[in-house]
Amino acid sequence: MDEQKQVILDYVINEYLEEDDDQEIDLDTELISGGIVDSFSMVSLKRFLEKKYAIQIPDADATPEAFDSVNKISALVDRFKNA
Amino acid sequence: MSYSATIREAHRQLLDELEEKGLYKEERYILGPQKADIEVEYPAGAAPAEVINFCANNYLGLSSHPAVIEAAHEGLRSHGYGMSSVRFICGTQDIHRTLEHKLTEFLGTEDTILFPSCMDANAGVFEAVLGPEDVMIADRLVHASIIDGMRLCSAMRDTYKHSDMKHLEQKLEEHQDKRVRLIITDGVFSMDGDLAKMDEIVALAKKYDAMVFSDESHSSGFIGKTGRGVHEHCGVMGEIDIITTTLGKGLGGASGGCVSGRKEIVELCRQKARPYLFSNTVAPVIVSGAIKVLDLISTNTERRDKLEWNTNYWREGLTRLGFDLKPGESPIVPVMLYNAKLAQDVARELYHEGIYVVGFFFPVVPQAAARIRTQLSADHDQEHLDKGLAAFAKIGEKYEILGLGKQEIIERYGK
Q1: Which of B22, B255, B276, B291 qualifies as a cystine partner to B341, CB 3.0-4.6 A?
Q2: Residue B68: burial class (beta carbons within 10 Å; 0-12, 13-18, 19+)
Q3: Which chain A positions have a beta carbon within 8 Å of B366's beta carbon?
Q4: B140 part of contact set with chain A, CB < 8 Å
Q5: Of A18, A35, A43, which is closest to B161 when you measure between CB atoms?
Q6: What is the per-residue pLDDT across B205-260, written as a single tens digit (0 to 9) for each?
Q7: Chain B nearest C-alpha distance from A59 (Å)
Q8: Do B140 and A35 touch (CB under 8 A)?
Q9: Verdict on whether the full-model pTM lies above 0.90
């Protein structure tokens, strides 16, 4: 798995899963629409990505759709890294 | 823009989808005052049925208490029906001040300000007190009204895993660069019925220089030895900086809410909170009733004690039958069913057995976490509880869910 995706996956697991949670998450697991991350708690993920990758994600692009899987989040990060 | 046929059709489809997914909520019509025994018309037009209510926030059984009703009548006679004003223009009467003083004393704070509802209190307080240099760190299961209030505030937002003190500590460390850190929690969580670890939260607040907010709506009047709330229960009276609570549950059940806490915070609400500035004052009849409620419970814990007994009896009974309950000690006892349709079907069948409960499902609770949220009242006698347990036993057997845990129920009924 590429390092960026692994970092994002690890963050999602640590930040959003409870210790006794048996939910398994992969790169395509639906995070917001699947109810694992609620849209209100998404803000900390956005802040983590901005700090970790020294990017700015405009609020208009920080949508539940854009954050709905690790793959999608990684694609969003790439978009703003290269902007 | 007019309500065109196209938009009407689109809205109709949204509503039909809710119904297909088993997420459509129906109202029942109660033909009289709120108490343990009620008469209900459901569905609309059906013959009224006498049922036992297990889903009201009428924790202390004061919603239809004769002394409260008489005090409300007296309030109408002495102070009129409506003030036709917001508080700061010409909507403040002497009885508003009296009620605020009584709430301050009851909750053990420095000052209190009334709002038309606790929903309004939560909508207004954060914006009035915090700014962009501050951070709000909320438990992930706080009430919807708190989330709405946080969205209205310019302070940074963050959340911590439900009741997870390690995660909260991590967040407090992370936000040491902010001017104010405000920890936000419910006192009793409305859907799960568990209590916040208020003593641990206060300890962390002291360690990391943070303030504490607690919504005590599901605890005021009956949690703690003298019913002051979760802060009394956890031995931290006087340590919560901002308390919001409602007069629409245990404290009479009519309407109204308040912010109670540090004097300057309450004063900031009085000067800046939008629901306070722009919404009508609490009606005199409500204020008068609420004053009587506080007088009844401030020196007498009989109702609070009976509620505690009822809660223990009910919880032990359901556990013995083999229902999957969320653990807790409040009079909110969720019976976990996980599947939305199952929750609705069981609630409907219980209704036919004379027990009024309602299924809770997404978006009120998370997906695949549907439940029947039973709630106890001091108005329940043991006879009510025994009838309730007998009905739950019968329907639980019919649906073959007794003794099953989460995985087994989901396997049988799906998510």
Answers
A1: B22
A2: buried
A3: 35
A4: yes
A5: A18
A6: 999 999 999 999 999 999 999 999 999 999 999 999 999 999 999 999 999 999 99
A7: 14
A8: no
A9: yes
B392 and B323 in contact (C-beta within 8 Å)?
yes
Domains with residue ranges and CATH for chain A? 3-18+25-81 (1.10.1200.10)
DSSP state of A53: H
Strand partners, B360: B371
ipTM of the complex: 0.89
> A14-23 burial, b for 16+ CB within 10 Å, e for fewer?
ebbbeeeeee
Is a pLDDT exceeding 90 seen at residue A1? no
Q: What is the distance, to the nearest Å, from the Cα of residue B378 to the centroid of all Cα atoms in its chain?
A: 17
**Residue found by looking up tokens 């009296």 in the block:** B98
Q: Is the CB of B367 less than 8 angstroms away from the CB of A43?
A: no
Least Cα distance to B64 among B36, B44, B87 occurs for: B36
Contact status of A38 with chain B (Cβ, < 8 Å): yes
- Sort out which chain B residues have CB atoms less than 8 A from A40's CB and list them: 147, 150-151, 157, 159
Indicate the pairing of strand B370-375 with strand B359-360: antiparallel
User: Taking chain B, what is the end-to-end CA distance rounded to the nearest angstrom?
Assistant: 40
Residue-wise pLDDT tens digits, A39-61:
788 889 999 999 999 999 998 99
Tell me, yes or no, if B218 is annotated catalytic: yes
Give the number of other CB atoms < 10 A from CB of residue A2.
9
Q: Report whether A46 contacts A10 (CB < 8 A).
A: no
How far apart are the C-alpha atoms of B239 and B154, rounded to whole Å?
25
Residue in A with minimal Cα distance to B167? A15
Give the residue extent of every domain in chain B: 22-53+301-413, 66-298
Question: Is the domain B22-53+301-413 a CATH 3.90.1150.10 member?
Answer: yes
Q: How far is A34 from chain B (nearest CA, A)?
A: 8
* pLDDT tens-place string over residues B182-191: 999 999 999 9
